[in-house]
Queue: 3 jobs
Job 1
Amino acid sequence: MISYSLILPKTLEPRRAEFEGYIIKALENVRAFAAKYGWSSLVHESFFDKVMIFDVKNEFDRTLLELCKMDPGMVLPESYCGALEERNLIAVSPEYYAKVYPQGVEPDSYIKLLTHEICHRLHVRILNGDEEAMGPVWFFEGFAIFAADQFTQSKIKLTQEDIYFIIGESRRGNYEQYSHVFKYFVNKIPLKVLVANAKREDLNDWLKNHV
């Protein structure tokens, strides 16, 4: 039995059962994804001890920066709405998430947000704890987006030239585009092979030679 403490602000306390349901469904999603790809043994141990939901973004930011031991004065993007650090799963409220990230709104989008954050930790377990092997930002975010089945209603279209440009960018970019790019490669190369090769210094050339 996985146990954790759920911490809610007073404004969200009347919705405790609702949030517990979101967490249960997110964990079910993670288990189903892991089972599909032969990683079930990696989800037996819990991923978090505490879940904290915030109705004030500044408090979410402050908590995240504290957990990551980063400069408390750092300004985080408005759309940065979830994380799993030091066995603490933290997220803003569903209403705030939908407001600041409308392109991510779809059926079960809040559950998918939680699933996404947990799947980053699954990714690390797949790599035996080696976070450096998760690959570039487009890859490890793409993995979590793919695992959480986000952007299922996306209408964007990218050419191969667009895709190669995106994987060549080192700066954090558009998650909807990452979804498209990751699916492009996973439809041509098995997921486990992609994950095992993400740490390559010549990853982009390797990908181009295998599609």
Note: The CA atoms of residues 138 and 166 lie 8 Å apart.
Job 2
Amino acid sequence: MEKIIQPLFKEIKDSQGRTPQMLFTEEHKELAKEGEKWLKNTASSCMLVATLITTVMFAAIFTVPGGNNNNNGYPIFMHTTSFKVFALSDALALFSSVISVLMFLSILTSRYAQEDFLVSLPRRLSVGIATLFFSIITMLIAFGATFFIVLGHQLAWIVIPTTLVACIPAILFALLQFPLLVDTISCTYGAGVFSR
């Protein structure tokens, strides 16, 4: 509303001496509290998942599939393509989950001012969910590469079905959280309700 009214109307006071901004803040106090509660619950839940992924991906890089060579300490399968896929996807999962944790932490420690609900908090939520989704995908790629390194030569027939079943969590997360991500992005960066 602020963008479509004349600037003079922003300063006019009602019979009780309140500006439009003061009246808006007063009228939407409960909505802000509900929004804060929802954001905190969502950020806490997603942060828990991102923290678990961070922990697992950090530990996975030090316990590489196939083990290390006793002579030089390097991973045994270091020069194979599947190991390179594992290493890259593990690093991407680790870094994106750390970014996700930081985004959700910034939501939890936000001051929840009225203007934060317009751009700042939705932007953080969008980045947090997107990086969490990316970390889940790259974690599953790392799992598939590890599975191939460990069992690919002896049990090749079981690698592909197991890897496909491992994709179910990413698909579920996408189906459940993608609408929230789209809504958050469209409300934050879209044309808004007044363009309809």
Note: The chain has six helices and no strands.
Job 3
Amino acid sequence: MEDKQRILFITPVRHLREFYNYVLQNYEVMELIEPTYEDVKIQLPNFDILFCAPNHQTFTIDEDLIKDSNLECIVTPSTGLNHIDVDSVPIVSIKNDEVLENIWSTAEHTLYLILSIVRKIKPTIELHDKTLGIIGHGRLGKMVEKLCTPLFKKVVCVDKKDSYEKLKDIDILSIHIDLNPTTYQIINKDFINQLNKSVYIVNTSRGEVVNEDDINDYLRVGKVKGYATDVLQNEYTNEYSVLENNPNVLVTPHIAGVTLEAQEKAYNRVLEKI
């Protein structure tokens, strides 16, 4: 009988009953709860596959971490890969996978954040006469557009290659762009200065697409009314965030895509792809 592949999970999986039963039947499994970088480095030589998720990780997986292992691949049930900085081992993700068309949790979380930050900062206003701007009109941007169109007077969408002129009169900005060298800290003072109004900003993409120092400065002077985010630019480090304890900031701990239903879909799919 062929030996089972060995998977090291550094993200919780036991709460996903269907998925967890499947991996127990088909793989040799170890699950590390709240692992440190050092914990993972010690265990990796004993495994073929490393399974990780960005929302349960406080460090970056890098070449030094995996250098003494014989990993066949690193698996992540996510579209973003900024928690993995590795070139020597294949990375299996759900980026551009068809399963994403049936996962709405991040788009729904975006709506929750929009409603929450507006009510937190100014509970007297309504959205029906406001304009929502969406930057990044891929899968998630289109989902957010569909959810928010009935709520707003107008929804304006631009993609990364479009002119941002259409966003100049928005009241709320929702960010849905991927992280790459061209989008790093693209939401900064120069970008915000193009907007005619003070705005609320919501980010469920990646923390690094925003310049948090600029956001913090503009929160102080009112050019940014409020910032609601599911991601921080330093979430895989121990660095202090300038946004910490700011009363005009709302932070959720990278949980937009982790409803149980969404996790079951994404986790099962990413193992199918190995």
Note: The longest strand covers residues 224-229.
